[in-house]
Design the sequence.
C-alpha cells in the first residue's frame, strides 16, 4: 500500500471534499498528525496524547486494469487528553479507454476509541477519486471513520472484536467484487451501518457516568459516477 498522495488534475469532474471535525474542551492540548499510531503516554504531569493515520491508495492503468484495496483498522487509545486521527482513501485510474477501461477502488474503515471527559479530539476523514485521461473508467474512494468516546476507560471485548473481524472479511470480499457502482456503494454503507451497531452494542455495557458514551460515524465517498 502506498502512503503518498497523487496530485489531482484540475480537469477532473469530481472536486475534493473533506470532512474535518474538531471537538474542543478547556485545558486540553492539541495532537499533531503522524504516519502511524502512537500510544498515549502515562506520565504524571504530562499531557497524554495519541495520534494515528490510516491511508489506502489504489492505482489502475493499462498495465494493471483493476486494483482494489481496503483497510480496516482499530485504534484503542484509552484515557487521553488529546487525540489526532486521520483516515484517508485515494483511488486513481489513468490512461485507459471506454473499450479498455480501468477499475480502481480504495476503501478505508478506521475505528478509534478514546476515553476521558475533557478530551481534545482532532479527527480528519478524506476521500479522493481521480480519472486521469481515463474514459469510461470506474474509480471509487471511500473513507469511513468511527469514533467511540467514553467518559471512563473502555476496551472492545473478544465478542465485539470477533464481530468486527467478520465485517472486515466481508469488506475484503466486497472490495474485490465486480459489483456495479450503485450496488457496491449500498453494500459498503450497509457494512458501515453494521460496524456502528456493533460499537453501540459495545458501549452499552461501558461504565455509566453523567457523560454518556457516543459513537460517531464520519463517511465520505468520492467518484464513480457520483455520490
Sequence:
Amino acid at each position: 500500500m502506498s502512503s503518498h498522495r497523487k496530485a489531482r488534475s484540475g480537469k477532473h469532474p469530481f472536486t475534493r471534499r473533506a470532512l474535518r471535525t474538531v471537538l474542543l474542551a478547556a485545558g486540553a492540548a492539541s495532537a499533531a498528525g503522524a504516519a502511524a499510531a502512537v500510544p498515549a503516554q502515562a506520565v504524571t504531569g504530562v499531557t497524554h496524547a495519541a495520534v494515528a493515520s490510516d491511508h489506502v491508495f489504489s492505482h489502475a492503468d493499462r498495465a494493471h486494469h483493476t486494483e482494489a484495496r481496503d483497510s480496516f483498522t482499530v485504534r484503542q487509545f484509552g484515557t487521553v487528553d488529546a487525540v489526532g486521527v486521520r483516515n484517508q482513501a485515494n483511488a486513481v485510474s489513468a490512461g485507459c479507454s471506454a473499450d479498455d477501461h480501468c477499475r480502481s477502488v480504495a476503501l478505508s474503515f478506521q475505528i478509534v476509541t478514546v476515553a476521558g471527559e475533557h478530551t481534545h479530539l482532532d479527527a480528519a476523514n478524506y476521500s479522493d477519486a481521480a480519472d486521469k485521461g481515463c474514459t469510461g473508467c470506474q474509480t471509487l474512494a471511500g473513507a469511513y471513520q468511527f469514533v467511540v468516546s467514553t467518559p471512563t476507560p473502555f476496551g472492545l471485548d473478544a465478542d465485539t472484536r470477533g464481530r468486527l473481524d467478520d465485517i472486515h472479511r466481508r469488506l475484503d470480499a466486497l472490495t474485490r467484487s465486480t459489483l456495479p457502482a450503485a450496488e457496491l456503494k449500498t453494500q459498503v454503507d450497509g457494512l458501515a451501518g453494521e460496524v456502528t451497531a456493533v460499537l453501540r452494542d459495545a458501549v452499552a455495557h461501558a461504565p455509566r457516568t453523567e457523560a454518556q458514551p457516543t459513537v460517531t460515524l464520519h463517511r465520505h465517498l468520492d467518484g464513480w459516477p457520483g455520490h
